[in-house]
Amino acid sequence: MTVLLVTGTSTGVGKTVITAALAAAAQAGGRSVAVCKPAQTGVGGDYPDEADIDVVQRLSGVQGVELARYPEPLAPDVAARRSGRPMLELEAVVDAVRALDAAHDLVLVEGAGGVAVRLGAGGFTVLDVAEAVSAPIVIVAGAELGTLNHSALTIAAARAGGVECAGLVIGSWPAAPSLAARVNRDELPLVTGIELTASIPEGAGLFESRAFEAVAVEAFGEFVESLLGYPA
Predict the structure, then answer these.
(1) What pLDDT, on a 0 to 100 scale, did the predictor assign at position 222?
(2) Coil/strand/helix, residue 37
(3) pTM metric for this prediction
(4) Which domain, by its residues, includes 78?
(5) How far apart are CA 211 and CA 118, in angstroms?
(6) Quick one: which H or E segment has residue 224?
(7) What does the alpha-carbon distance between residue 36 and residue 58 come to, in Å, rounded to a whole number?
(8) Which DSSP letter does residue 114 get?
(9) How many Å apart are CA 87 and CA 66, to the nearest integer?
(10) What is the tens place of the pLDDT at every residue in 163-207?
(11) Is residue 35 within 8 Å of residue 66, measured between CB atoms?
């Protein structure tokens, strides 16, 4: 049984779509999958955005588990303070992940923002969760200018925290890639020391579930099997 944390170089780089793609690829390979979103912000009330676990379920069919939700679209600890709701505790996240891990082949834990974003009480981050459950991370990066710096800093932070990077993914590959995007795709492995695992096409989050599964299997089928072992 395997736990994998999905984090990003920033917000809006495609973590949720990548989480859904990993889930879809694993499920298509006959694996049991669970998805955990420790802290969801910016959903409900004045913020009608679709929750991340709902996006994952729509695309992959995997029903996610959400541990805390706060209405304002802010970092989880800030959103918790402003809402007056209890902050998430690291121990609660670890317990939830371990319980899911005991019952599934693969558990995907989607963070919020990047690796330094504070998820709850005491300022714990996705790296603290990864360390506590002895799990690697997958880093989702953008394609355009700035991604080399953001990716290098993210991986440096993970390594400094003793957390293994299992993969590096471009979360939204443009239909008409710019010069910067094309060059960055080649440069990312040189800058980070990690081979690019996959790229998911721009707009994949709007695909019908069957089309999304085909994209997910092409992008992540071999990656998932290498993590979980052959055969299913």
Answers:
(1) 96
(2) strand
(3) 0.96
(4) 2-228
(5) 35
(6) helix 209-228
(7) 15
(8) E
(9) 14
(10) 999 999 999 999 999 999 999 999 999 999 999 999 999 999 999
(11) no
What pLDDT sits at residue 229? 86
The letter for the amino acid at 76 is: P
Measure the CA–CA gap between 77 and 200, rounded to whole angstroms.
Answer: 30
Residue-wise pLDDT for 6-50, tens only, equals: 999 999 999 999 999 999 999 999 999 999 999 999 997 666 678
Instruction: Give, rounded to a whole angstrom, the gap between the first and last alpha carbons of the chain.
Output: 12
Task: Quickly tell me which residue has 């963070």 as its tokens.
Answer: 111
Q: Does residue 96 contact residue 64 with C-beta atoms inside 8 Å?
A: no
Positive or negative: CA dihedral 174, 176, 180, 184:
positive
| Catalytic one of 37, 69, 104, 118 | 37
How many distinct structural domains can be found in the chain?
1
In this structure, what CATH number is given to the domain that contains residue 39? 3.40.50.300
Residue 15 designated active-site:
no
The Cβ-side half-sphere exposure at 91, using a 13 Å CA radius, reads: 0
Query: CB 30: neighbour CB atoms within 10 A?
Result: 9
